[in-house]
Amino acid sequence: MKPNLVTVALSAIVLLGLPSCSTTTSSATTTTAPTTAATQTQTSIKVGASSSTLGLMKVLQTNYEASAKNVKITQLEPGQSENIIDGIKQTLVDLGAISRTLKPEENDGTLESRDVAHDALLVATHSSVTGVKNLTTEDLKGIYSGSITNWKELGGTDAKIVLLDRPEDESAKRLLRKYYLGADLKNSLEAVVFRKEGELIEAIQSTPYSIGTFSLAQAISNKLSVNRLSLNGVEPTRENVKAGKYPMVRTISLVWHKKPSEATQALLQYISSPPGINAMEQSGFISVTQSAKN
Fold this sequence. Notes:
Layout: H1 5-17, H2 21-39, E1 43-49, H3 54-67, E2 71-75, H4 81-89, E3 95-98, E4 111-125, E5 134-135, H5 137-145, E6 162-165, H6 171-181, E7 192-193, H7 197-206, E8 210-215, H8 216-221, E9 227-228, E10 230-231, H9 238-242, E11 249-257, H10 262-272, H11 274-282, E12 286-287, H12 288-293
Parallel strand pairs: 1-2, 1-3, 5-10, 6-7, 6-8
Antiparallel strand pairs: 3-11, 4-8, 4-9, 4-11, 4-12
Helix pairs in contact: 3-11
């Protein structure tokens, strides 16, 4: 008797649904691979840094990962110091770097902090600016207010000054006001303001006749082809910073939760160790430990 169509169809479905021997072997191989990979997964440390401290944290990351085993440092998108601190409180960030000392009112009892490095702020120009090697306080006030608009007025090239600036709440602008500009000086309406320091650094290298203020350590470690200006006759060197002659210096602090992971503790220990201090110093930063010795 010939089988009916329903019987044939059901038989086909059963045959298609049964795995072959080769399929079974393949499935077993696939399921064991993730288990092996999981045992070799690197420990991740989430680091939050403000744009002005990102350079230091990248230096420490590169050097630490080269020596530590199975450790991966993830640099989160640069943010404001206040947001980084909140992220640590919520345990969303393992270690934070801010360009100032943690304020007492910011600590709800769950945080630890430590000053780790000093970073001088450099006033520099694009390489196209010639004839200008030193600026006085009055020169800086004129440039940042817009009353001095041509490099010729300062003994330089006959070209319009392109002012690259930072927001008022950023460390570079705060220190410029503290030591040179004063609190009441009005900003030039033609200033180009950059939220992130890295953006300003890129712009000053590509914009003829520009001037801006940023990390001296970044200029040293990246060998930037910019003109480093003296201020009131004092050169922006690490030696002058250590001697207290060059005043425009910011402090970089680390912030972490009182109950850090073992991986975070190990990173903190490295930063305070001779290899960590050497990595900072070689990149143009000044270790707080080394400053204390001097």
